[in-house]
Write a structure and sequence with these properties.
This protein is an alpha/beta fold. The chain is built from ten helices and 14 strands. The chain has one domain: TIM Barrel (Alpha-Beta Barrel), CATH 3.20.20. The strands form two sheets. The chain has a twelve-stranded mixed sheet with strand order 9-10-11-8-7-6-5-4-3-12-13-14.
């Protein structure tokens, strides 16, 4: 294999060209990612070295779903009634998650995030954090809806959790209740305070923006970021809801989000896609009052810099949030498979990754599993 030069968490030779970033804010034109069955064929799948796919992207970030269960029923994720849970016997144990995480770390995965469902509904979740914290990841975080966090934040921090992302889709109590269908805004705001007090920072607030639902709060949420110093991340509505009610007309493009905010508070680009594989494009307020993020999974795909893979709660590796294929690592574990076999499965999963998710391609098929079943 010819020499591969690592840059920004991926290999640049043979990879998809990164999206160009500029210092000043500019309109976000769509950057198409070619979806093709053709792959580079010059090299076989490597069996040593980092986790690299056939397009040259190195994978260093993994999301681990610890449960498919959740105590809320957000409209963009789960139906209000009639949810069928994965049998508990099929959910990975803490010992199994730890073993998989160790293998991933040995393959170069250095950032780990716990997700769900809602990870805080998993009993003894702090015990898992302790296990994972001993492995040596440079970043160990969690995405949560905030319920239970006020009580658990100190213990999670003591166990080794470094930071949290908290979902909060509205600053209006009544609307929050309509979107979440359970719970209260007050509880989530208390969770934010508790997270900061425990040192689980920088604190990021995830907002799924939906046209005609909460998009009139975009500027208010940006103001909340300025007032609190918390990083609000605006996320385009994705076709991952269990009710399958997603429509393109409900997507508020990231370009429009930025335009609305910048008319009130000018923004400057704070990240470069070629150097930062994180899903959010970051923008700072020109007057220095903090920053926001925009995740444009639908209108401006960032697949070319993706360095992520996922482990579902029932033990399958997914190489893309929108993939339909999975690699069942649990079966290898429970049949007595070795770490070497697990490592090979990781390599195969990453090597099979497509050039992009293809949401805007006519052949796109939405995933059979919803977000809560995949793990965010």
């Amino acid at each position: 294999m010819s020499k591969l030069e690592k840059q920004g968490g991926r290999c640049v030779e043979g990879a998809i060209e990164p999206q160009t970033a500029v210092a000043e804010l500019r309109p976000m034109s769509a950057v198409p990612i070619e979806i093709s069955s053709r792959r580079p064929t010059a090299f076989p799948m490597p069996t040593t070295g980092p986790l690299i796919d056939s397009f040259g992207r190195i994978h260093t970030d993994m999301r681990i779903s610890v449960t498919d269960r959740c105590n809320l029923r957000c409209v963009y994720c789960m139906p209000e009634e009639g949810v069928t849970w994965v049998p508990r016997s099929e959910i990975l144990t803490f010992e199994e998650i730890e073993q998989i995480a160790k293998v991933a770390h040995n393959l170069g995965v250095d950032s780990l995030r716990l997700t769900g469902g809602e990870p805080l509904v998993r009993a003894s979740i702090t015990d898992l954090v302790v296990r994972l914290g001993r492995i040596g990841f440079s970043d160990l975080s969690m995405t949560t809806n905030g319920y239970g966090l006020a009580r658990l934040a100190p213990a999670l921090a003591a166990a080794g959790l470094m930071r949290v992302n908290i979902s909060c889709d509205s600053l209006k109590a009544a609307r929050f209740a309509e979107i979440r269908r359970r719970g209260t805004l007050e509880t989530v705001l208390e969770a934010m305070d508790a997270a900061e007090h425990a040192g689980l920072t920088p604190l990021k607030i995830n907002v799924v923006v939906m046209a005609g639902v909460n998009d009139d709060e975009i500027v208010d949420l940006a103001g909340f970021s300025r007032d609190t110093g918390r990083i609000v991340r605006f996320i385009e509505f994705m076709p991952l809801d269990a009710g399958k009610e997603w429509e393109r007309s409900k997507v508020v493009p990231g370009e429009e989000i930025l335009a609305r905010i910048s008319r009130v508070w000018p923004l400057e680009s704070a990240s470069e896609r070629a150097l930062d594989a994180a899903p959010a494009d970051r923008y700072r307020f020109a007057d220095g009052r903090g920053e926001i993020g925009v995740i444009t999974s639908v209108t401006r795909a960032f697949c070319g810099s993706c360095n992520r893979l996922r482990l579902t709660a029932d033990g399958s590796i997914r190489n893309c949030l929108f993939a339909n294929g999975e690699h069942p690592v649990r079966d290898v574990l429970r049949s007595g498979g070795s770490d070497a076999e697990l490592a090979l499965l990781f390599r195969k999963a990453v090597w099979d990754k497509r050039a992009g998710h293809g949401i805007n391609d006519p052949s796109f098929l939405r995933p059979a599993r919803s977000m809560s079943m995949i793990g965010g």
